[in-house]
Amino acid sequence: MTTSSVMFVNEGIFGVSDDARVPMETVRWSNGLAAPMDHGAWILTGINTGHVRVKAQCLDAAPSVEAADWEEIVEVSVRSVAGDLCINSGYDITPDDLPALNPQGPGWYRMRVHASGRSINPDGVSEEPVEDYLIAVWPQEPAESVVIRSSKMIDEALLANADTTPEDISHATPEPDDAAERDRRADVRARLLRSLQDD
Fold first, then answer.
1. How far apart, in whole angstroms, are the C-alpha atoms of residue 69 and residue 133?
2. How would you label 135-154 residue by residue, b for 16+ Cβ within 10 Å and e otherwise?
3. Which is nearest to 126 in space by CA: 15, 5, 10, 14?
4. C-alpha angle with apex 86: 161 to 145, nearest 5 degrees?
5. What is the pLDDT of residue 91?
6. Positions of E strands within the chain
7. What is the rounded CA–CA span in Å between residue 130 and residue 115?
8. Alpha helices in 48-178 (DSSP H)
């Protein structure tokens, strides 16, 4: 079953987490879309502030990959340690119409994050949603992160984190050709880190 909601985001992120304290010191930003931590994960949006459309699927097993409607798709492992693993804005604003993603309780889950529209208004403000996300989660033991469908934003994040990310990425990563865009993304990432550490 898939449920959907329009959700407010700020500082370019929303969360997939349960009731436990968010372990920011363990965040792994490697692919620039889904950033898992010791438990829970952050999803990085294109906009800085505004509304995005989010769909959630809670599944029993891995679904087939349906990439036709999505510009970016990654898979990461996410751990639930307490409470309900839910999609939230990071500001105690959790859409009531999105389901808990860990009906089997605490443990390891696989999360496939689909995104479209992140390049429409990068680091901007968007009252009307221009970005779409589908978060699909099912029980599975931890495994390497995988990029299923890449983008310029994902490729740049992989390059920026290559020296700290041992994960084996199975697609070709072109050299970025836009220095200003690289600098802008690095600035956004640094600002995100600062704001999250202040919380």
1. 11
2. bbbbbbeeeebbbbebbbbb
3. 10
4. 30
5. 61
6. 2-9, 13-17, 34-36, 41-44, 49-58, 72-80, 86-88, 107-116, 125-126, 132-139, 146-149
7. 11
8. 152-160
Burial class (CB in 10 A: 0-12, 13-18, 19+), 118: buried
8 A C-beta contact, residue 41 and residue 33: no
Return the bridge partners of 7, or none: 52
Closest CA to 82 of 137, 20, 22, 37: 20
pLDDT of residue 191: 53
Q: Kindly list the averaged pLDDT for each block of 10 residues, start to end, along the chain of length 199.
A: 85 89 85 94 96 94 92 96 84 71 92 97 94 96 95 92 54 40 54 52
E-assigned strand segments in 89-181: 107-116, 125-126, 132-139, 146-149
pTM of the model: 0.79
- Do 126 and 133 touch, CB atoms closer than 8 A? no
Letter for the amino acid at 162? A
* Separation between Cα atoms, residue 98 and residue 3, nearest integer Å: 6
